[in-house]
Design brief:
Length: 249
């Protein structure tokens, strides 16, 4: 069984959806948690309360991504409270769906800033401490959209593709220091992001998935917890798909 006793994890967007499932799974494995949120304070505090009920320490911190000073303060709060961050999960993300021909520069920049620039800044704020301690785990939550593209989501797909490049580049830089950097690329997961998907679109999406079902947040969380563990010490620079076979090959 994975043992993360004595480790501290920071999960961006950790109050709901996939981020919440990741935070709870890491806590069950023994980690203390910093739950980042932007606007969902009530959900973040509920997640913190559930983690504390397990006997772990937890703290909710608001930070506006991708403002550099906000991210620096997020990192400082985590370090001041827990002494350091061993596991960083860059989970926070947004979508603004439009055909590329109608997508404004603001639509593009908003998504790329939160989905790609913010993970870079979080890594920059925390990786030095990991390198100094000779142990660390950075796990970026990407998407199969970054591997195969997705209609109406040129901004999102480009950001997630860039996140894969960021993952591999930083992995090369810090591998000799005992720090691993990996990405998890979920397929279609049952979260608020697809809650309003029309029935006809859901049916078409299911036809493309060999397992004929959408994933659950816990499916992603289990992979993240494994990558955060000592059992995954020799895995780095990888993009692991959790998609029911949506992109086989």
């Amino acid at each position: 069984m994975t043992n993360l006793d004595g480790r501290t994890a920071l999960v961006t967007g950790g109050g709901r959806g996939i981020g919440r499932a990741i935070a709870l799974d890491l806590a069950r494995a023994g980690a203390d948690l910093v739950i980042h949120y932007c606007a969902s304070q009530d959900q973040a505090e509920e997640t913190v309360a559930e983690i504390k009920a397990m006997g772990r320490r937890a703290l909710a911190v608001q930070s506006i991504l991708p403002i550099p000073t906000e991210i620096e303060q997020l990192a400082k709060r985590a370090i001041d409270t827990f002494g350091g961050v061993d596991i960083l999960v860059n989970n926070a993300g947004v979508v603004r769906d439009k055909p590329a021909m109608f997508m404004s520069e603001d639509d593009w920049e908003h998504v790329v800033d939160i989905d790609l620039k913010a993970p870079f800044l979080c890594i920059k704020a925390l990786v030095r401490g990991m390198v100094q301690r000779k142990w660390g785990r950075i796990i970026n939550i990407s998407s199969v959209a970054g591997l195969m593209g997705d209609a109406m989501r040129a901004n999102y797909s480009a950001a997630k593709a860039g996140l894969g490049g960021l993952t591999m580049s930083v992995a090369r830089e810090v591998a000799a220091s005992g720090v691993t950097v990996n990405a998890v690329a979920p397929g279609i997961i049952e979260t608020d992001m697809i809650a309003d998907m029309k029935t006809s679109r859901r049916e078409k999406a299911l036809e493309r998935i060999p397992m004929s079902t959408f994933g659950q947040p816990e499916d992603v969380a289990g992979v993240v917890t494994f990558l955060a563990s000592e059992e995954a010490r020799y895995i780095t620079g990888q993009i692991i798909r959790v998609d029911g076979g949506l992109r086989i090959g």
